[in-house]
Write a structure and sequence with these properties.
The chain has a 7-stranded mixed β-sheet, sandwiched between helices. 41% of the residues are buried. It has a single domain, classed as Rossmann fold (3-Layer(aba) Sandwich), CATH 3.40.50. It has 7 helices and 7 strands; from the N terminus they run βαβααββαβαβαβα. The protein is α/β, with parallel strands linked by helices.
Length: 215
């Protein structure tokens, strides 16, 4: 489906939203998600481009309590039995270092778990999500609306679960959405076809950066 006047990106009102690009999802880590490390350089270039424009960036983080009580039902047993993934206080729940602005603080677990944004740079935040979709019981929509965002650029981990759920939540809230084809792990042709059919814009990181720069 070709973009329409209602769905095409408004680059002057765009925010980058990264999903679950945390240490634990990278190659060789306890909760490795295939393709996330490969997507990381493309996501980094997006972060650099948005920072250079002074445009908003939100990094969505998972944070699990050791007993699994705040996790999805399908993960509670594994966590209660000692699984190491996104645990509060652990290095694994931190954002991939390549994506951090200079002198960024580590996640403030207590603040984030109360559904408040943590500012880590100029117009840049961590936000905690408690389920697959980044809008569920979070302050994401409030944060984006406060900065006049109409267009969400999505990148991160991983298409079948959290990216896909967030796309539909964003669409339901009438945001224009761009999915970065080389900046999302496990993003396939089937995913491209699905998203295109509901008016989601599919762009590479380079194409998005060109659009952001007015090229």
């Amino acid at each position: 489906m070709q973009p329409t006047s209602w769905t095409k990106p408004e680059f002057g009102h765009a925010a980058l939203v990264t999903i679950d690009v945390q240490r634990d999802t990278l190659d060789g880590q306890p909760f490795e998600i295939t393709g996330t490390s490969k997507a990381l350089p493309h996501i980094k270039r997006l972060c650099d481009a948005f920072r250079s424009k002074g445009a908003p960036i939100v990094h969505i983080l998972r944070l699990y309590l050791p007993d699994g009580s705040n996790a999805e039902l399908c993960r509670r047993e594994a966590l209660s039995e000692g699984a190491q993934m996104f645990l509060v206080g652990s290095e694994g729940r931190e954002l991939a270092p390549e994506l951090l602005p200079h002198h960024a603080a580590p996640p403030d677990d207590n603040l984030l778990l109360t559904s408040q944004p943590q500012e880590i740079g100029e117009k840049e935040w961590y936000i905690y999500k408690s389920r697959w979709g980044a809008f569920y019981n979070s302050c994401l929509e409030e944060t984006l609306r406060a900065h006049d965002v109409s267009t969400i650029v999505l990148a991160g981990c991983n298409y079948p679960n959290c990216i896909r759920a967030t796309v539909y939540e964003a669409s339901e809230r009438d945001f224009r959405v761009v999915a970065i084809t080389d900046g999302i792990s496990n993003f396939s042709e089937n995913g491209w076809n699905e998203l295109s059919s509901i008016g989601i814009n599919l762009m590479s990181a380079d194409n998005l950066i060109n659009g952001l720069n007015g090229k």
